[in-house]
Design the sequence.
């Protein structure tokens, strides 16, 4: 079993498949490296510490929060009170924000993934004039951060009268150049031309072929793109911040910030404990999504790395 | 923190773009909506009279109010109960800068502009000059002379116009933790020299404790210069001068530099959770801050209950009677707002008439002289402050605000770069005086780029 990439078209494959390829290089004979262990441990602590902090501090009351050491529990265990208060505060607006976020994720990230799959597949499997130009545009679009587009998008949407509506969040979320690029490279290898040709010979229409034959083959890539889009939409902050004025349409990110901001104004109520508990509740669904989707995702990462 | 800073700059940039665009946009939008030959926006406002306002209340309608001030919720309920045909849509479109950005964007886009917007005093000139908010003189605000205390009333004037009605005010006072003061045998300082001496005594007795915090705060610095009689900003229409070498500023920097050099100020940013923590555990033993602070102490620093007291602001000369405003905001009517008559009716209700009562009961500090002098207000005992009649001290401060202060017509931007310039005095060997010079230069450069005439 060879672990090298095929010689033919090698450079192209590596370049195009870059983000998806993970080459597991087992250290020979299971040798351990102290340096690596220490480095890994450091990275682990660095990434987990904020989470631990968040989990610990969500158990404190406002006074406990301000009066105790940040990385250990205060005397009072108020997690469940905090959760109840988070859902009840401000006439239960947290629930509304949670539902809004779900709407934006399902419609925005879901839609973006479907569009990326259609577009990426089309670009990978159909030859047409201008493909190179499209490639250039897509690669260029990957380089433009969403934040830079937020203000122009706002101006355009307000001309169309769409600001302060959910459309202002969903429509821009549907565009995912990076997802398109991933699906494109993935589809290039994951869907063999031969299968498509035999499907065509058997008289299957292009859409039927796509949904019946190609889509299952694309599943690992699709899940990867879906995860990326879900995370991006779930954490989207700047776009809703400038698009929305009505707290009734806020996603969790902007809503929690508005709670935090209360502590910064004359006469405002400081609710740090609710902000922290709300933040913990906000990341729970993301963690769940990762745990549920990870096995599809992992098989996606490995796909194509081994030549059979 | 880095992200916040960057976002602030980005918002600043967005604000700039919309400010300049707003200035020319507003004239062509009013030209478009009014009939040809009509004078632009002010003439349209002039058409609204007292009778029109009464009529608007009778016929009803709906208005949108952008504000983050918490007591307005009650005001809106009361207002709707009194005028059942009117629907008030109260929206918290963000706090401070976020809301200003949203407002400028809406004005520029010409859609989604609210009928009423909360604007802090320091930001009002910026909106007034861009003609984003209406001159309320045409709606009858000129007759309200004497209704408000002098500080806020002059803050809503820009040139000859009145661009908002004062909603609350922030005459300054010294808030201090009596328990800590008693423990270390500190007198309540009556002058700034005594304040500096107390700062040293406290910090020497307990190296963890500070008399107050300051990590560089534009609002606090300008208020302190204001109290010292300084007038660094001179604004005449679009001609702007900044001079931080004048005597008032020097008075402040000489004192504050001593505190910075002696490391006698807690290096904690106001409004951070660290700040709330310090106020609760006694490591920040005092605050020189606006009169709206009691409500924040009560809700955010529960551990300080029974410990805090209020005293007059320390003076530059023994026996002096000078204070300044810190914070506070007005309600303004965006020029592009759809229903000015009804908006003004709400403005007046919330800032002059019955609404003030509800707001005071909710813990707001009013800007109206009638409320401030009301015995019910002055004699109210605050359990949090050990039963002290806090409002007496604060109301007295309101009557002693030094006159003649003005902010820049681009103070929102200027404040956003304070920490990158003057703020360096708190973290490096730069002196505060040099830091303020850097702030002055950066602000002037920006002003020039925005088309203001700079007075040398």
Sequence:
């Amino acid at each position: 079993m060879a672990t090298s990439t095929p010689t033919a078209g090698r450079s192209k494959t590596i370049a195009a498949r870059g983000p998806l390829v993970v080459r597991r290089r087992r250290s020979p004979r299971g040798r351990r490296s102290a340096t690596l262990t220490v480095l890994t441990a450091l990275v682990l602590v660095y990434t987990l510490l904020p989470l631990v902090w968040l989990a610990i501090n969500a158990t404190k009351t406002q006074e406990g929060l301000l009066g105790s050491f940040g990385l250990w529990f205060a005397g009072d265990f108020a997690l469940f009170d905090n959760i109840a208060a988070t859902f009840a505060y401000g006439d239960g607006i947290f629930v509304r924000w949670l539902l809004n976020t779900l709407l934006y994720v399902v419609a925005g990230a879901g839609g973006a993934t479907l569009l990326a799959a259609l577009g990426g597949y089309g670009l990978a499997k159909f030859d047409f004039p201008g493909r190179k130009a499209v490639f250039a545009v897509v690669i260029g679009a990957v380089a433009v951060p969403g934040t830079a587009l937020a203000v122009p998008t706002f101006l355009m949407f307000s001309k169309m009268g769409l600001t302060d509506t959910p459309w202002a969040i969903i429509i821009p979320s549907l565009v995912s150049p990076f997802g398109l690029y991933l699906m494109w490279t993935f589809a290039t290898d994951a869907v063999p031309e031969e299968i498509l040709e035999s499907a065509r010979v058997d008289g299957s229409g292009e859409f039927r072929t796509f949904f019946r034959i190609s889509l299952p083959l694309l599943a690992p890539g699709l899940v990867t793109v879906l995860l990326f889009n879900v995370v991006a939409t779930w954490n989207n902050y700047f776009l809703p911040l400038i698009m929305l004025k009505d707290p009734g349409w806020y996603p969790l990110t902007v809503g929690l910030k508005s709670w935090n901001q209360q502590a910064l104004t004359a006469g405002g109520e400081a609710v740090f404990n609710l902000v922290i508990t709300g933040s913990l509740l906000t990341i729970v669904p993301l963690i769940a999504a990762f745990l549920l989707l990870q096995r599809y995702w992992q098989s996606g990462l490995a796909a194509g790395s081994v030549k059979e | 923190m880095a992200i916040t800073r960057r976002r602030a700059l980005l918002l600043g940039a967005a604000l700039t773009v919309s400010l300049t665009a707003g200035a020319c946009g507003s004239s062509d939008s009013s030209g478009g909506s009014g009939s040809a030959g009509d004078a632009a926006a002010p003439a349209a406002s002039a058409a609204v009279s007292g009778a029109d306002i009464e009529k608007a209340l009778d016929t009803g309608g709906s208005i949108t109010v952008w504000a983050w001030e918490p007591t307005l919720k009650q005001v809106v309920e009361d207002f709707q109960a009194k005028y059942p045909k009117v629907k008030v849509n109260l929206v918290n479109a963000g706090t401070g800068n976020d809301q200003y950005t949203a407002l400028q964007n809406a004005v520029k886009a010409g859609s989604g502009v609210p009928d009423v917007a909360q604007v802090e005093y320091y930001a009002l000139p910026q909106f007034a000059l861009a003609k984003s908010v209406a001159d309320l003189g045409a709606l009858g605000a000129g007759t309200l002379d004497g209704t408000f205390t002098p500080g806020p009333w002059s803050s809503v004037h820009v040139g000859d116009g009145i661009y908002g009605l004062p909603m609350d005010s922030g005459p300054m006072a010294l808030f201090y933790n009596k328990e800590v003061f008693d423990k270390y045998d500190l007198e309540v300082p009556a002058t700034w020299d005594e304040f500096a001496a107390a700062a040293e005594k406290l910090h020497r007795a307990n190296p963890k404790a500070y008399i107050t915090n300051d990590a560089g705060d534009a609002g606090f610095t300008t208020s302190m210069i204001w109290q010292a009689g300084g007038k660094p900003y001179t604004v005449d229409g679009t001609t702007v001068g900044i001079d931080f070498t004048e005597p008032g500023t020097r008075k402040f920097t000489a004192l504050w530099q001593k505190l910075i050099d002696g490391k006698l100020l807690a290096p904690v940013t106001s409004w951070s959770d660290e700040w709330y923590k310090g106020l609760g555990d006694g490591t920040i033993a005092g605050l020189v801050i606006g009169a709206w602070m009691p409500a924040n102490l009560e809700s955010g620093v529960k551990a300080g209950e029974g410990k805090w007291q209020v005293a007059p602001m320390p003076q530059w000369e023994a026996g002096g009677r000078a204070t300044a405003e810190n914070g506070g905001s007005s309600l303004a009517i965006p020029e592009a707002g759809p229903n000015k008559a009804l908006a003004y009716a709400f403005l007046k209700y919330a800032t002059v008439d019955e609404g003030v009562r509800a707001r005071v009961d909710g813990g707001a500090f009013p800007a109206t002289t009638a409320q401030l002098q009301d015995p019910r207000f002055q004699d109210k005992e605050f359990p949090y402050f050990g039963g002290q009649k806090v409002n007496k001290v604060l109301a007295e401060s309101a009557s002693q605000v030094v006159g003649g202060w003005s902010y820049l017509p681009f103070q929102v931007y200027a404040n956003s770069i304070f920490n990158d310039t003057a703020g360096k005095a708190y973290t490096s060997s730069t002196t505060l005086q040099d830091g303020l010079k850097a702030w002055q230069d950066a602000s002037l450069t920006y002003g020039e780029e925005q088309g203001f005439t700079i007075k040398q």
